[in-house]
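Friendly challenge for the regulars: who can give me the structure tokens for this chain first? No prize, just bragging rights.
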Amino acid sequence: MRPPDTGVRTVLITAPDAETGARLARALVEERLAACVNVVPGVRSIYRYEGRLHDDPEVLLIAKTRSDRLERLSARVNALHPYDLPEVLALPGVGGSEPYLEWVRTEAGDEPA
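First reply, four minutes later:
Bragging rights claimed.
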């Protein structure tokens, strides 16, 4: 049996450097598209893009948001990100601390009046 969906999503986003990552994280939290964004330094990404193999230092953003905010969060990342094809990958929240999940659902909510 599959655990119930909490309505919370964890979104993985990579950025080229810490300053870009912090700028993206601040925008997502300030605009209430995410309750929290962790900026994890020291990520090394090896990937194929446009027919070439790349090996680049990056930072990883881990954003916590509501499922109904995901489309707007993704659009905002695409608008602000320096990459042509930024990573925005959402993982479903299927469990966890209910007080924390409720906090995410509240903070990644409608913009304050």
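The longest strand covers residues 52-66. The first helix runs from residue 18 to 30. Your move, everyone else.
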